[in-house]
Design brief:
This protein folds into 2 domains: 36 residues; 205 residues, Rossmann fold (3-Layer(aba) Sandwich), CATH 3.40.50.2020. The chain has a 5-stranded parallel β-sheet. The protein starts with 12 loop residues before the first helix and ends with a helix. The radius of gyration is 23 Å and the shape is globular. Helix 7 crosses helix 9. Helices cover 43% and strands 13% of the residues. The N terminus and C terminus are likely disordered. It contains 14 helices and 7 strands. The protein is of the alpha/beta class. It binds zinc ion (ZN) (2 copies). One zinc ion binds next to helix 3.
Amino acid sequence: MCAGLGRIVFSSSRELTRAITAKVVSAGHCFVPWTCHAAESLFATLFPSDCRLCGAPLVKISSLPVCEDCLSAMRPIPGEVCSVCGEGLVSPYAFAQEHDEPRCGLCRRLGPPFAKATAYGSYDGGLRELIHLLKYEQVRPAANVLGRMLAEAITDLSSSVGETCLLVVPVPLHTRKVRQRGFNQAELIARAALKLKPVGMQLTLESGILERRRETQSQIGLTRHQRRENMRGAFAVTKPAEVQDREILLVDDVFTTGTTVSECARMLRRAGSPRVWVATVARTLKIEATYAISEEEEESGLAKAAHG
Ligand SMILES: [Zn+2]
Ligand SMILES: [Zn+2]
């Protein structure tokens, strides 16, 4: 027997490197710099991998090819945001009524169909690239990091939600897109977030309640009203009995113009949900909104780039 002879069989060079690194660390040799460097350079030689965001060489073994610096640069949205939709506010006090929470101009004019939307970070820089790694390059371990951020956004809602138990509904993709991608990123991120049990929240994931009936056209150059028209009929509630009298937490990777979550919320409210909450990992903020493009444009743009 191999085990009896004390032989260790490695099925892959990856396992070999793991074993070597584990041995180096467990033997306490990390106090001797050259040993560590030797292990790192051996690792780098076997797996010449760079951070997919900044290009720095990766020296730690991780299933996510993103360096610590890039991950720690993904910070929550700084400053004051609209208490309803989460938009960044330049001068919050200009928008706040007395004893009232600040609202952006749009939410003051026209309340959205959801009770409150919250996001972890701004949809730019590293966070945008990390979401792209998951969606377009199928780097699934990115969902765990994004799930951690979503859990923080969800925790943010807890004081507004109170004791109510929420049904968590990921924004659905069209079945054709799920087949092509292999997963719905909103669902993967939601599952990762729920594993962390956001503090003080009672959450149940229900991914089959809502479906995307058609793929929507490009929203570029459309007015708010036209975007809504464009989105009309794109979603349908498939299990109205489960929605009746239940408060819902809609989750998605990105909140761009809010048209998608607004349309989902409208359908859920119409099916009998008294309140719909929204949590996303990222959000485009006003300053970037000038350049904001919808998910559809981004995907068709990336698809074009990939095909030539
Ligand atoms: Zn990096
Ligand atoms: Zn707002």
